[in-house]
Amino acid sequence: MTPVSAPPLARPTIADLLARLGDVPAWRVLLDPPPGRATVADALALDAQEDRLCELVDGTLVEKGMGYRESLLAGALIALLRAFVVPRRLGLVTGEAGMIRLFPGLVRIPDVAFTSWNRLPGRRVPDAPVPDLVPDLVVEVLSESNTTAEMNRKRDEYFRAGVRLLWEVDPEGRTVSAYTAPDQSVTLDHTQTLDGGDVLPGFTLRLCDLFGELDEQAGP
Question: How many secondary structure helices (H) and strands (E) does the chain include?
């Protein structure tokens, strides 16, 4: 009887890579270094040499989806959070260039993050350009290039690492979805008020004030 050989294993394709990364647009995925071989050092070098912010996912550099409107809202949130956090000496608030290593080989760059002093070794600001650090709160301001699959993956990673609260800000819909777990969230519109929950008790933000920054008109 002639033995039956197993079919050859399919070679991975670019489509497989994009699907694994969360169906991100191909223009955001760098091929140099080759996917699977990139390191944290490569991400730092790209930022220093070309001013391009890339996350490191599965050994692949993925350019961060950004835009002017998204940067504006992130900046507003940083200012509001700092006004609450700093006087109370609660921790640190970082912005859209703050790389953090959640797991070996996984570097994310939330648009805004709050990290309590208790999560900072020695209650000091890390010296490393990409510290091994898990914030209490992360904020992702959605851009046009962010996909549903990408954000699903990010949520899973953040909460698996130990993030306690995630805000997804949608500039187009003018909503904020507050997640306390990957599958547990409440979505607030521009008429409602966002709060800091158990992570930042006492912090509140009227979303009409946040999204109102997109419509502010100059005076006469």
Answer: 5, 12
The contacts of residue 198 (CB under 8 Å, 6+ apart) are 164, 165
| Mode of pairing for the β-strands spanning 137-141 and 165-170 | parallel
Instruction: Round to whole Å and give the CA distance between 165 and 175.
Output: 16
Distance CA 30, CA 42 (A): 11
- Residue 75 and residue 54: Cα distance in Å, rounded? 19
The predicted model scores a pTM of 0.91
CA distance 67 to 90: 30
Distance between CA atoms of residues 23 and 18, nearest Å? 5
- pLDDT tens profile 114-160: 999 999 999 999 999 999 999 999 999 999 999 999 999 999 999 99
